[in-house]
Write a structure and sequence with these properties.
Layout (H helix, E strand, L loop, with lengths): L3 E5 L13 E2 L5 E3 L7 H9 L4 E5 L33 H12 L3 H18 L2 H7 L7 H18 L4 H13 L9 H4 L7 H8 L1 H10 L6 H9 L20 H16 L10 H9 L8 H10 L8 E4 L4 E6 L9 E4 L5 E3 L11 E5 L5 E3 L3
Antiparallel strand pairs: 1-4, 2-3, 5-6, 5-9, 6-7, 7-8, 9-10
Helix pairs in contact: 2-3, 3-5, 3-6, 4-5, 5-6, 5-11, 5-13, 6-10, 6-11, 9-10, 10-11, 11-12, 11-13
The chain binds fe (ii) ion.
The site of fe (ii) ion has 5 residues, from loops.
């Protein structure tokens, strides 16, 4: 299988072959899979706001002397889709992007099982969470991240192997129905109107139906796709189920799904401060989210990840080195002006400081909502 890479438009040399259909934000097909990039198309894509595409490694010539734009002491701008060599799921993420984009359920199922196996064998699942990147690719990156986050919850809370596998596969396939939604609705910039929202909501049932067509997928996994938007208090969709009527694994996917979607920057919205997302999620304890699933989520998922740039209430800029398992809002950081390493949880000089800004990998500054 050829290696598929995601590259920035500005790095592609003329003559490269594109490996997926590319749509404009309005949903119009602007370049069909297999077509060759021309200068005119590149310009058109940039005008339309398309910044990255999938290309087959080896067939693509990249301009490798383009300088990497750096943040103020932080990470390069284009690292969002590049995973470090330390990331044990690098290969699975590349394969998973391809299988999901091709709506290949069997292939995605297989990749998810490989992710589950590696997570269980890693012995340091929280380190793997630090390697996740919240990108701009919508359903595909979201599904891969959700798979890993759900699997991490299973591992950290002592689930048996089969249930961890189910969580990872369910996370991978929960939004597969979105791949069948009109791209004009799926990728719309700005708020959906009522009609569009109703269309978007059909993805849960649509995903269930598509998974029913596939005999290799268990009923459990199908139900995780069907029920992952049901709320604990019965206000969700598609069936307005509540409490124990909702499969427990679907309740876990629900909280992880919302957390991942809110933390990520998407084509239609900016990312939110991860601490604020945590507060949002906690504020819906027992209403939107099941309490047991929430407790497991809070025990597992860090508010800040390695590499995040944050600003403290006294104006100090820091970069996160490690999340803190005891209090995910107080990570280990390096101060960017002095390069001094500070433990925000234990250092008395910093206990009263709070995180007020989060500077995303793409350079967007997200201020605290409070
Ligand atoms: Fe969904």
């Amino acid at each position: 299988m050829a290696e598929i890479r995601i590259v920035a438009i500005r790095k592609i040399k003329i003559g490269s072959k594109v490996q997926c259909d590319i749509y404009s934000k309005d949903g119009a097909l602007i370049l069909k899979k297999g077509n060759v990039m021309t200068e005119h198309i590149l310009e058109k894509l940039e005008t339309m706001g398309v910044t990255r595409v999938l290309v087959e490694a080896g067939t693509v010539e990249l301009i490798d002397d383009a300088p990497e734009k750096k943040e103020d002491g932080g990470l390069p701008k284009d690292n969002i889709d590049k995973y470090s060599d330390n990331f044990i799921l690098k290969k699975e993420f590349e394969q998973g992007k391809e299988t999901l984009l091709n709506k290949d359920v069997d292939g995605s199922h297989e990749v998810a099982l490989s992710i589950a196996g590696k997570l269980m064998a890693s012995g340091s699942v929280k380190k793997e969470l630090d390697e996740l990147k919240y990108g701009t690719e919508g359903v595909v990156t979201h599904s891969l991240n959700t798979a890993v986050l759900a699997g991490a919850i299973g591992i950290e809370n002592g689930f048996p192997k089969e249930e961890i596998e189910q969580l990872v596969v369910g996370g991978m396939l929960h939004d597969i129905g979105k791949l069948y939604i009109d791209p004009a609705v799926l990728n719309k910039k700005g708020r959906l109107n009522d009609r569009e929202y109703e269309i978007m909501k059909t993805h849960a049932e649509e995903g269930y139906r598509k998974l029913c067509d596939n005999k290799g997928v268990s009923q459990h996994i199908r139900l995780m796709a069907f029920q992952h938007h049901e709320n604990n208090d019965g206000t969700g969709y598609p069936k307005r189920l509540h409490g124990d009527q909702i499969l427990f694994e679907a309740r876990i996917i629900h909280v992880v799904d919302v957390y991942e979607a809110m933390t990520a920057k998407r084509c239609y919205k900016d990312s939110l401060l991860s601490g604020d997302v945590m507060e949002f999620v906690m504020g819906r304890y027992a209403t939107m989210f099941d309490t047991k699933a929430m407790d497991m989520f809070l025990k597992t998922i860090p508010a800040y990840k390695k590499g995040d740039l944050i600003k403290l209430s006294d104006g100090t800029k820091c970069q996160v080195l490690e999340s803190n398992p005891k209090n995910s809002l107080r990570p280990l950081v390096v101060l960017l002006d002095s390069m001094k390493v500070v433990d925000l949880y234990n250092d008395r000089n910093f206990l009263s400081k709070t995180v007020t800004e989060y500077i995303s990998k793409e350079g967007d500054i997200v201020k605290h909502n409070n």
